[in-house]
Structure formats: C-alpha cells, structure tokens
Amino acid sequence: MPTGSPPPFDPADPLGLDDLLSPEDLAVRRTTRRWATDRVRPHIARWYEDGRAPVTELARELGELGALGMSLEGYGCAGASAVQYGLTCLELEAADSGIRSLVSVQGSLAMYAIHRYGSPGQRERWLPPMARGETIGCFALTEPDHGSDPAAMRTRAERDGGDWVLTGRKMWITNGSVAGVAVVWARTEDGVRGFVVPTDRPGFTAREIRHKWSLRASVTSELVLDGVRLPADAVLPGARGLGAALGALGHARFGIVWGALGAARDCFETALTYAGEREQFGRPIAGFQLTQAKLADMALELHKGLLLAHHLGRRLDAGRLRPEQVSFGKLNNVREALEICRTARTILGANGISLEYPVLRHCGNLESVLTYEGTSEMHQLVLGKALTGLEAFRG
C-alpha cells in the first residue's frame, strides 16, 4: 500500500487528470493556453460582436505555433500525438469555438485529406504553406440541400478531354471565402471523388455568410463552382468513394471531442468565480445548496468528458480508435458541454447574457458544434447501428 498523504484537492483538476499527461503534453497545453490568453481573449468579445476576426493573421500565428496539421507527419507539420492535438483544441475552444474551428478545418479536414489521399506532388505543393498558415484551406462537402446525407450530393465533376469540370454549390463551409485551396467532393461517373481546387480558378466564387448568431468569430461561406476547369492531376488519387470524406470528418470530430470541453471549462470556471464573488441575502451565492449542486454536477460532467477524451486520444495514438467511438465522444461531450454552459448562465443570472462574460457566447457557439460534422441524432444512429447491427438511417 502507498504511504503518505494524497495531494491537496484541486478544484481545477478534481480527479488529478494532469497525472495522465507527459511533460511534453503539459508543455503543448501551456504554450497554446498562453497564446490564446494573450492573443484571443482580450479581443474575442469585440470580434464576436462585430462578426469578424482577423482570420488570415491568426492563421499565420497558429502556423508559427505549430497548431496547423499538428498531428500529421512531414511537410512542416509538427507530428504531435493525438492527445497533444486534443489539448490544443481544448485550449483554443476555451477562448472561442471559432478559433478551434479554424484550426480543425485547416488541419484535420483540408490538410488531412491532402496528406492522407493526395499525390506526392499535391502534398509538396500545398501542405508546407498550409502548415505555416500562409495558405488557408477549406473542406467542401455539405450542400444547401444535403447535410446529414452527403451521399445525395449534386455537385458533379465531369471529364472533358484530359481535364475535369466541376459544377455545383457547397454551403456552410468554414474558411471558404479566405481559403487559397478547397478540397471539394463531387460525384463522378465512378462515384464520389475529392479534388484539390485552387480558389483563384475561373468559375470558383465564395460568398461569406453573414447574420449568424453562432460562430461569429469564424468565416463561414457558400461556394459556387460554375464550370471550374481543373487538370487531371487535381483529383485526390487515394480518395475513392464517400468513405474518404467521412474518414477526414472522423479525424476532425476527434478534435471536437476535446474542444467542446474547453468551452465548458471556461463557463464552469467563470461560474465558480462569479458564485464566490456575487452576494445575495448577505453571503456569496456559492454558499447556497442549489448553487453548489449545480457546480458539483457541472464538474462531474466536465471531468468525465475529459476522461473520455483522454481515453479516445490514447486509442487513436495506438491506432485502435474506431469511428463509432468518435461518435460516442462527440455525442456525449458536446451535449454535456452545452448543458454545462447553460447551467453556468443560470448561476450568472442576468450577467450571463452579457458579452462581458463568455458564457452565452460559448452557448451560442456550441449550438453549431452540436450539429456540425454530424448531428447528435446521426451519432445516436451510428451508435444504435453498432449496438444492434441494424441500420436505421433511412427508417
């Protein structure tokens, strides 16, 4: 039996989860947290209110930080572990979901697709400047009429001599109107294929979607491909069928499993501090039973979610993570993160709706995180199929 006393209880780490992290993991977390604290937090309320953030400038800084494509090997990428990537997503989303989305789409969707499915020439051309943040990428799968059912996409790529000609529309595309390259998924006579599309090609236009009430510090766009002509080598040679696109989405969803908990942690810490300072009936509201019950339940779900994220990260690093397990993580952690943020809002009362505090901003962002890259209902059905062996997607 071990001897001696256990360490003091730490409200910021009640389960002692930092014991699961290596010195390298802690260094990555510390570096990302410092950047987010210095570079994002002082400005994020204004960016959110204005509906604009300096995305191209932030991308270069994130490239210098090593956060873009950080779990990929070679081509200027950091080659970090899955857990280190997860910790980075958590710290970025603790500042704002829009900043994490920038990193996720750049590294886990656009760069991952090129790295995993691209030719040597495509990798050499695009990945180094994307890792530096000099070129921003986007991932164009969702269409105006096809979100949860991408197999029904209408965007087509047709051969014309030695070229490909792409026609169609894509919707809700993060980074779309600031991207220098788009990974576009289109239907061909041989099934769904992926294409690397420079955004300066004639016929390619991107319109930023405004008037959003969520992810306001993120660029979201509609893409129109009107006869975009591409050379034969624009196709991703390793991407045959919709499974390739879904594979990239699975990689990005892993980052969401961690990132959503960053928003939850920020709301929990805000509520805990506020409850200790806010007085009603002659004492801090943290001293009332109902407030303590809320804080205890928030801490339970937050740190259970972190345990789940750590477990999935170790499985990914070991090459043992299944898509159904990623669905398990996204479904649980985003759903519980949103509930934590909503509960924090009740503790802050009227102050909870003010941009002076981060709580309702995180709530609004997580409403998008809840449904993008697979709605909660779709992940329930993924798990339902895995549990029963029966597919219920089409009734």
TrEMBL record:
Quick check: keyword Disulfide bond in the entry? no
For this chain, the family text in UniProt reads: Belongs to the acyl-CoA dehydrogenase family.
What keywords does the record list, in alphabetical order?
Answer: FAD, Flavoprotein, Oxidoreductase, Transit peptide
Instruction: Name the source organism.
Output: Streptomyces xiamenensis
Q: Ranges for the Acyl-CoA dehydrogenase/oxidase C-terminal domain?
A: 240-387
Keyword Oxidoreductase, does the record have it? Answer: yes
Parts of the chain that traverse the membrane:
none
Q: Which named protein is this?
A: Acyl-CoA dehydrogenase
Residues of the Acyl-CoA dehydrogenase/oxidase N-terminal domain:
23-134
Q: Which domain of life is it from?
A: Bacteria
- List the InterPro entries hit by this protein, alphabetically: Acyl-CoA_Oxase/DH_mid-dom (IPR006091), Acyl-CoA_Oxase/DH_mid-dom_sf (IPR046373), AcylCo_DH-like_C (IPR036250), AcylCo_DH/oxidase_C (IPR009075), AcylCoA_DH/ox_N (IPR013786), AcylCoA_DH/ox_N_sf (IPR037069), AcylCoA_DH/oxidase_NM_dom_sf (IPR009100), Glutaryl-CoA_DH_mitochondrial (IPR052033)
Which residues are in the Acyl-CoA oxidase/dehydrogenase middle domain?
138-228
One GO biological-process annotation of the entry reads: fatty-acyl-CoA biosynthetic process
Cross-referenced PANTHER family, in alphabetical order? GLUTARYL-COA DEHYDROGENASE, MITOCHONDRIAL
SUPFAM superfamilies reported for this sequence? Acyl-CoA dehydrogenase C-terminal domain-like, Acyl-CoA dehydrogenase NM domain-like
Please give one Gene Ontology molecular function term for this protein. fatty-acyl-CoA binding
What this protein needs as a cofactor is:
FAD
